[in-house]
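Entry 14. Ran structure prediction on the chain below.
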Amino acid sequence: MKSLVTGGVRSGKSFYAESLVVAEPHVTYIAPGREADPDADPSHAARVAEHQARRPASWVTVESHDLADALASAEGAVVVDCIGDWVQWLIGELDGWDETREEWEPRFVRQVEEAAEAVAARRDIVVLVTQEAGMGVETDDWRARLFRDLLGYANQRLALECDDVLLIVAGRVLTL
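Output, structure tokens:
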């Protein structure tokens, strides 16, 4: 079973995603967009600590920006939280905030494709957590639009490899 869990910020996505694997004997929790500097965003660090506190101690946490490799080497059921954080990191890593889109977008697409192939190859449960593109404040900021566009692309591509897509709204689950 492979699921993509999407929704707005603070909608309950992570909690629900974790509930899908809580009975599994082995769970790998992949954090693909984690900031190396915990002081970079104090609110992000607080959310990470909150998430870690509610997870069983037996879960293995892997912090890796190489999502395809982390998926390929994970043991047991897998929770990836969060695709949106990974997309944001990937844009920065590819100099997407400073270079023209044509210069780096093919490498972005290749990274998403490799992650999707790694999801498809897994035989254990995979749960991908992501923000739903365009469910936030609309802005004229080009960076926000770029992030929204690329997150939407990544979500659509990864969803193709999933059996279920679940939308979380106010803690409620809608199966799409």
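Helices lie at 13-19, 42-54, 67-73, 83-93, 101-121, 142-159. Will compare against last week's run tomorrow.
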